Amino acid sequence: MSERVDAVIVGAGVMGAMTAWRLALRGRSVVLLEQYALLHAHGSSHGQTRIMRVAYRDPNYTSLAGESLGLWRDLESASNEQLLEQSGQLDHGEPEVIDVIEAGLLRSGWAAQRLMPDAATERWPGMLFDRAVVFSPDGGRIFADRSVAAAIRTAEQLGVVAHDMTPVERIERTARGVRVHSASGSWDAGVVVLCAGPWLPELARDLVPLPPLTITQQQPVHFGIRPGFHFPSFVHHPGGTGPLGFGAYGLESPGEGVKVGIENTIREVTPATRTYEEDPVVTEAAREYAELWLPGADTSQHTSVTCLFTETADSHFVLERHGPIIICSPCSGHGFKFAPAIGERAARLALGDPSVPPLPSA
């Protein structure tokens, strides 16, 4: 016997959690299914921190980040938790790239402070800076695990039923929408929202057309912080990347040190073939970067973590409705900051709203 609900959401990472929250706010009956334990470390949403930035070369992402900021504050109020810290964010590197970022911030009404590299190092002595620098005081960091937990908890308080350790075995279309099957039960719904990240190709391959997707294993590395130093969130643009590309990123992560990610150290995998083991080549690349650019980092101390990115060819996002099935991923490795706004759009799509604004695209 199947239970009837308004919507089933598959995947309780940040996108699924936010979509559940936004649907529950509208009084809809929602079931949220997760194949692992809630807040697991197998996908893309786990970890202490993520960068929050409104600074993008693409003005559509700057606009989406602004929309997300308001919704982050709404979730903070509803959950009584600090989820976002606007401690500022830096972009530095190729002058032409920094020019575009600065102009986009100012054109959109955001503050931007241009700095010479030496002046930036005087202000943030734990870092050295490349050629051109712009500081965005509206950026900062998001507390990732805390945010996913807050969204799920707030959604449950509004009536969402979350089932962990419940992998979806099959989804079938019905006359009234869909039926979602798991080993522990089935649910009939008008719509299913697939927020399954790297598991999306396997889950949706016979249901809807998908764009080409690449799943990669990432390995950010945390280094110790020398006494007296602190780090803002930063993105380094050495040049030669596309409008959504970068060379390296980093931020201070409480209790972990300074987190460093290098773009060219990724490895293509599947959820079945990924490993959780530290790759010494990736660690060494991060160490070399930190020793060159982050004098405040203690590279004799490090820890690392792996995660999965699910990326489109152009690094944009996928949010589409195909009849009763909504695809709400992948987010190409830079979606966490936008999750409340994407969850809001997914909820509106689930309700059949024809006026949902599209996400940025090529």
Supply the helix-strand structural class: alpha+beta
- CATH second-level architecture: 3-Layer(bba) Sandwich
Tell me about the biggest sheet?
A: 8 strands, mixed
Helix content: 25-40%
- What separation lies between the terminal Cα atoms? 45 Å
Which secondary structure elements does this structure contain, and how are they paired or packed?
Layout: E1 3-10, H1 14-25, E2 30-33, E3 49-52, H2 59-79, E4 84-85, E5 89-93, H3 95-107, E6 113-115, H4 117-123, E7 132-136, E8 140-143, H5 144-157, E9 161-163, E10 168-174, E11 177-182, E12 185-194, H6 200-204, E13 213-218, E14 221-225, E15 233-237, E16 248-253, E17 257-262, E18 267-268, H7 280-293, E19 297-304, E20 307-312, E21 319-322, E22 325-328, H8 339-350
Parallel strand pairs: 1-2, 1-12, 2-9, 5-15, 12-22
Antiparallel strand pairs: 3-8, 4-8, 5-7, 6-7, 10-11, 11-12, 13-18, 13-20, 14-17, 14-19, 15-16, 16-17, 21-22
Helix pairs in contact: 1-5, 1-8, 2-5, 2-8
Which structural traits does this protein have?
362 residues; FAD/NAD(P)-binding domain; sarcosine oxidase activity; alpha+beta; 22 strands
Write up what this structure looks like.
The chain has 362 residues and is an alpha+beta fold. The protein has a single domain (3-350), classed as FAD/NAD(P)-binding domain (3-Layer(bba) Sandwich). It has helices at 14-25, 59-79, 95-107, 117-123, 144-157, 200-204, 280-293, 339-350, and strands spanning 3-10, 30-33, 49-52, 84-85, 89-93, 113-115, 132-136, 140-143, 161-163, 168-174, 177-182, 185-194, 213-218, 221-225, 233-237, 248-253, 257-262, 267-268, 297-304, 307-312, 319-322, 325-328. Strands 1, 2, 9, 10, 11, 12, 21 and 22 form an 8-stranded mixed beta sheet that branches. It has an 8-stranded mixed beta sheet with strand order 6-7-5-15-16-17-14-19. Helix 1 packs across helix 8 (339-350). The protein is globular. The model has no long low-confidence stretch (mean pLDDT 95). It holds the Pfam family DAO.
